[in-house]
Amino acid sequence: MQYQVSQFRLQLRHPFGLSRDTVAQLPTVLLNLDGGLGEAAPVRYLGDTAGDLMRAVGRLCRGYNEHAESDGPEAARAWVQTTGEPSAARAAVDVAAWDRQARQQKICLYNLFQKDSPTGLHTSITIALDSHEAMLQRVCEATERGAEHLKIKLGRDPEFDRHITTAIRKLAPDVRIRVDANAGWTFDVARAMCSHLADLGVELVEQPLAIGQTQADGPLPALCRASPVPIFLDEDIQGPDSLRDLGDLGIAGVNLKLMKCGGLTPALELIKLARARGLGILLGCMIESRVGLAAAAALAPQVDLLDLDAHLLTTNDPFATTVDKACSYTEIAPLCQPVDGDLGATKIPGWLS
């Protein structure tokens, strides 16, 4: 099978601030595997770089082709997950292989996993860390365009976090709010913030503590016991193995992202593991194009909450389409349509035409 890998820089509509840093643009790696499209958006806290991912995707494509020729595509997809290559690189090849299969069958990708289209489902909109005024302006923009669910990034300054969440709740009293600290709080700050957020009616808090605080007698179980707000893990949950090895800590759910778990194949396994443990599932994304988002959206009916909003946060998605006017601002139905396979029109150097 032919394959081609290319790098593309996505421009953020607004500065995208987390507890760790603020960026204005981010790279992503795009793959065409004999007509199937995949994407590797770097997971920066794992040390991914676009250059490393491009090389890893190339190695995986060569190995995938060898295994597909000798053992078939299903065995080749399974082999990809055994390689130890970065999760985002594995996701690109895994998604491209699934996408190629769907195109060969002339069906939408989601039809490989369920019969019905994921229509009527909506995503939250991320309000990234910024100045007090800028964040409130983003809230106004999102709610004026119909957003009913907001995900607020916090985690740098506890006093700022308290003030901005109070102000957002006053500005948008009816909106559903989720909070993501991106591992930015200490235990004492997290305990106080969870109490404060409960008073504001916040639905859940993602990754309040630093990565690796998951020991049975450690701070995360203690926080789960003390918090009146459900705790979801993000950075502490990568692929299925990280959930399988996790003790009963009292968490309410996990954030599933294709880029950190290795694609659709391990995501399906992670969903089963989470359900067996009675955990909620938030389907999230990195800053990525509609290729990665469409793959994630194929799993939307199998999860509880959606955070698939990268296409609303960037300005130059090379696969952007005209959004169906019948869909509201946050409806994910447009993401579920096959991405145009005529990649010559995307003007990305190196793509197969």
Structure description:
The structure is a single chain. The protein has 353 residues and is an alpha/beta fold. It has 2 domains: 3-106, Enolase-like, domain 1 (2-Layer Sandwich), CATH 3.30.390.10; 125-336, TIM Barrel (Alpha-Beta Barrel), CATH 3.20.20.120. The chain has 12 helices and 11 strands. The chain has helices at 50-71, 73-80, 87-104, 132-144, 158-171, 187-199, 219-226, 240-244, 258-261, 264-276, 290-297, 310-313; strands at 3-17, 22-33, 36-40, 125-127, 149-153, 176-180, 205-206, 231-233, 253-256, 280-283, 305-306. It has an 8-stranded parallel β-sheet with strand order 4-5-6-7-8-9-10-11. It is globular and about 60 Å long.
Structural class: alpha/beta
Strand content: 15-25%
Computed CA radius of gyration, to the nearest angstrom:
20 Å
| C-alpha end-to-end distance | 15 Å
Q: What is the overall pLDDT average?
A: 92
By DSSP (H or I, 4+ residues per run), the number of helices equals 12
At the fourth CATH level, what is the homologous superfamily of the largest domain? Enolase-like C-terminal domain
Order of helices and strands: EEEHHHEHEHEHEHEHEHHEHEH
**Into which percent range does the helicity of residues fall?**
25-40%
**Overall outline:** globular
Give the total of domains: 2
Q: Which architecture of the largest domain would the CATH scheme give at its second level?
A: Alpha-Beta Barrel
Would you give the CATH topology of the largest domain?
TIM Barrel
Largest sheet: 8 strands, parallel
The number of E-state strands comes to: 11
Q: Tell me, what is the CATH class of the largest domain? A: Alpha Beta
For the biggest β-sheet, the strand order reads 4-5-6-7-8-9-10-11
Task: Pick out the low-confidence regions.
Answer: 342-353
